[in-house]
Design a protein that fits this description.
73 residues, alpha+beta, three-stranded antiparallel β-sheet, two-stranded antiparallel ribbon, 1 helix, 12% helix, rod-shaped
Length: 73
């Protein structure tokens, strides 16, 4: 679970400073949130898939003019 660290804390022996984000287990997240040292973070914008642009519509193709095979008079 992704959490935002509100106060400096040690997570699995590593220091985490206030204002940083961490990916922790559900149990660790619940403990940190319960202690008031973290809050649930929203997914970062980069992780959300961007909608794919629609391909441009195919241009209408007009048939080419063909020459007549009969001679002009």
């Amino acid at each position: 679970m992704r959490v935002e660290i509100l106060r400096p804390v040690m997570i699995s022996g590593e220091p985490a400073s206030a204002g940083s984000f961490a990916e922790v287990s559900l149990a660790d997240a619940q403990m940190l949130i319960g202690l008031g040292k973290a809050r649930k973070a929203e997914e970062p914008e980069a992780a959300k898939p961007e909608p794919k642009p629609e391909p441009p519509a195919a241009a209408e193709v007009k048939p080419k003019r063909t020459r007549s095979t009969t001679p002009k008079e």
